[in-house]
Design brief:
It is a single chain. By secondary structure, the protein is an alpha+beta fold. The protein has two domains: 70 residues, no CATH class; 134 residues, no CATH class. It is 16% helix and 30% strand. It contains four helices and 14 strands. The strands form four sheets. It has a six-stranded antiparallel beta sheet with strand order 9-10-11-14-13-12, with helices on one face. Strand 4 and strand 5 form a beta hairpin.
Length: 218
Amino acid sequence: MESANRDSADVPGVCPDCGQSGVCLYRVRATGERFWVCEECDAAWRPGADRSVFDTSLSGFLPAEPDPWKAIERADGPQWPRTLQALVGLVARGELAGLALGMHRIDALAVVDVPCAPATDGVVAAGDVSLTFEADTLVGITVRLPPTGVRWPGLMRVATAPRLAPVPRPEALAALRDAGFEPPSDGRAAEFRAVGRRVRLDFDRGLLSAVAVSSTSR
């Protein structure tokens, strides 16, 4: 399934400059021109711009403005809370707060601060995060979301990227549909396929209680 389009450009998942998930659609108050801005690092670009050859900050985008943040405002349309950005990022790209499907075992274990793990294939648990490996490749990420809060391991404890949380079921499904996915609406679990991966969402008493994403090549 492909991401939904807005303003003739795919909704960015993470900022191509800083790698964080703070990208939102803004507009210039005076002209109405719309563009993407990373609220973490101030990177800015027009929808559809080739980021491989175009690189500027918000101040470079509006050089005549002494304080460009005062000259812009969030564009109309749905804006995902950061917890839902994290959910969409995990489903759409297999990424979460320093982890990414396809990572080498050593790199993934460094993120969750597990110095020694079984050399054989299998699951490594750290806090409320479980990693599944095939040989030396990370092929699955599962996060439990207890109502009392997730026990984030290792570097994930201090990650600045948006984090998953036990959000209400309607909000979780609406954010995924808004991003172009089609999770089922009924039952206590929602299983579906994104591009290159399988996704399972579990719900408990109407709240998201676990997310599991795995490579479909498994």
